[in-house]
Protein 1
Amino acid sequence: MSLPGEDFPPAGAIPVDQINEADVASGAAAGTAITTITVPDTYRFRIAGIGFGAEDESGLRFLSWTLNVSPPGAPVYGYVNMPAAIGSIAYPAFVFIVLGSSVTFTVQVVNNAAVAVTYHYFVRTQGWYYSEKEA
């Protein structure tokens, strides 16, 4: 018997610790895809942490983010239009998301429309790819 791969990285799990960055203009309606991760075939992806940073940290108060998965091309329930007050680059906040194989995961960010400048943001995503194997 083994522990579930979504709770604990099993033997053979592939760690993911990705930092991405982007310039985000004021109030871009569609948002900016700051991170894109494609889950390999035959694996699942457990996202365990996410955190945000900025060159000018005061800009974080204007940032909101949404997690999207394609297919089906829809937001992840519970992670839509969230404030960037969650986590940091040094200490990502705990999240619990499990994605199936062959999907693409995107962190979409938007600056408040009232912001007159473009900010440079960072996002860190942590987790692991794993395959469930029967004993």
Note: Residues 66 and 80 are 4 Å apart (CA to CA).
Protein 2
Amino acid sequence: MIGILGSGFGLYGYLPASVSLEMGSVLLPSRYQKVFSIREELQPFLKKIEWLDSDLDLIKTATTLIISRRPGDQSQLIDTVLAQPNIKNIIFEKPFSINPGMAKIMQDKILNSQKICSVSYIFRYFPWAITLKDHLVRNPEFEQESLKLTWRFMAHHYNNNLLNWKRDHEQGGGVLRFYGIHIIALLAEWGYNQVEKSNFFLNSDGVSYSRWSALFKGINLPNFEIDIDIKSVETLFNVKRFLQAEYIYQGSDPFDEQGSKNENISTDLRCNYLRTLLLENNSQIEVWPHRYVQAINLWDKVENDINQKKLIAVN
């Protein structure tokens, strides 16, 4: 049975994705009932939910557990969760942990537990990412290319002046740990293992990084530059190849493709990809796929650089 811990994205993202698998009732803590009741788009799933008295009751009942909580909370839960013999599979929402050091500690515990675990780096399922990976793997001439990924938008916490954890780098938020981690995971999976340069822009609030630019390199891979600005008046997402002077992908955001907008299980565009993640986790043989080890290692290299470069953003 699938159980979900997390009353935010756990409900409006993972719940519809889990129900779509038709694997029986989905377990939720009773304390989520009030939040559930005010979200109209979730009401069709009511009959598919089994409400349990407490989080611990859920942890002791589920065979597949989805943890969609703040990264610090996920770190605190891991010992309890890994100790439960009933739990066979675990999916962690990203950021996996607050920082790469804590992520490595969690990684070691997972490897020792022999439970099947995944992290929701769902960009790897997006059509543009699949196309780009295909170019990198199948086209030898791509090694001579130079690529740049640009992502600009106004994050919800800036647009609404919210002082929440998603804004705070120290709690696992900000441009790098909450947004950039998706790109780090992709690059690590594709073989990038060097951080040639990296610049971070500290926002005027003193707790959040609002912009990050970096250059990554890997063996037999083209240089890959990224520029992510989460406090921008522009809204765009693109991947450009410079030698051919063309865009591999160009849209308003990472989800701006037919594969995202045709989903039919929820209004949230990420649900199709979460469903894919759940199916993959269910059939996964490796306890902890090597791509997660690579992602943490590359993240650690980026974090080593952030301690040396703290630039004040002009925005």
Note: Residues 2-122 form a domain with the Rossmann fold fold (CATH 3.40.50.720).
